[in-house]
Amino acid sequence: MVRWRDNSRRITIPAVVLVGLLSLTGALLLAGCENVAGYSSTSLVRLIDASYNAPAITVTVEGDQLAANVGQGDITLYGAFPPSNNASVKVTNASNNTVLVSSNGTLLGGASQSVLVTDINAEYQVTVLEDQSQPAPSGHSDFRILNQAPSTGAVDVYFLPSTTATSYANAKPVITGLAVGATSAYVAIPSSTLYMIIVATGKTLTATSTTIYVSPALPLVGGEVRTVLVVDPLLVTQPVQVYIANDVD
Fold first, then answer.
1. pLDDT value, residue 115
2. What is the pLDDT of residue 205?
3. For 53-68, what is each residue's pLDDT tens digit?
4. Is 4 exposed, middle or buried (0-12, 13-18, 19+ CB in 10 A)?
5. Residue ranges of the chain whose pLDDT lies below 70
6. Among the listed residues 106, 50, 78, the one whose alpha carbon sits nearest the alpha carbon of residue 248
7. Domain termination site, one of 90, 107, 131
8. DSSP alpha helices (H): ranges in the chain?
9. Which residue range forms the structural domain that includes residue 86?
10. Is residue 11 part of a domain?
């Protein structure tokens, strides 16, 4: 907000007029806090593309473009859209506008949502996820995991202060047995510099395991909210690929 200040002249407002202005201002402020006729707060929407077989895609919401020419692993910034109880979402081939899939979802006013595009088993699907829009509690960071890795299977997720054998030996996962296609709830992690480690469920956590994904050090200071997309690697000799999106900075 920009505040303009003009000290070049002063205008004296009669008391009765001032009272009227204050009353009008109060009424407007109250109206702005309610859902009144002709007024609604916006809905924030972004795209998460987890597709394997889809070409580059364009996505529209209620006919307005959300994203264009994106591919697997792309997570867009949030855009503002009108709230709707039955918003149409259409995914098209970016090169020829062929419709790949269309669906409907709820867009809540004053909230954040993600349009998740998947095609596990070559069946295109669109899911509207409700995102956390408030910061994590002080001293904590909130993480949510989207497992879109069918070849890897169910996964366990750890957050550890180091990648040493000692840390691995004492580690306990914060998310266990997250099935393919599932989305975890947000989990609160005490904030510090941590490593996120993802391993196939049932595998022993060791430094030599080829099924483990180890993130770079994550300097978490508190309040952060993150969504983590897990997909299968392009090469079978690689660990899972991971994309991290900022829900709340």
1. 97
2. 85
3. 889 999 999 999 999 9
4. exposed
5. 1-40, 210, 236-237
6. 78
7. 131
8. 15-32, 165-169
9. 43-131
10. no
Q: Which residues are CB-neighbours of 122 under 8 A, at least 6 positions away?
A: 53
Residues 127 and 144 in one domain: no
Rounded Cα distance between 103 and 106, Å, is 11
Q: 9-21: buried (b, 16+ CB within 10 Å) or exposed (e) per residue?
A: eeeeeeeeeeeee
β partners of residue 143: 187, 226
Q: Are residues 153 and 189 in the same domain?
A: yes
Report the domain count for the chain.
2
Q: Give CA–CA dist 118/126, Å, rounded.
A: 7
Written as six digits, the tokens of 142 are 């909130």
The enclosing H or E element of 140 equals strand 140-148
What global pTM score does this model have? 0.80
pLDDT of residue 237: 65
**What is the model's pLDDT at position 64?**
95
Collapsing DSSP states into helix, strand and coil, what is residue 183?
strand
pLDDT value at residue 192 = 98
Query: What pLDDT is attached to residue 110?
Result: 94
Q: How far apart are CA 197 and CA 195, in angstroms?
A: 6
Residue 198 to residue 212: CA distance in whole angstroms: 5
AA letter at 196: M
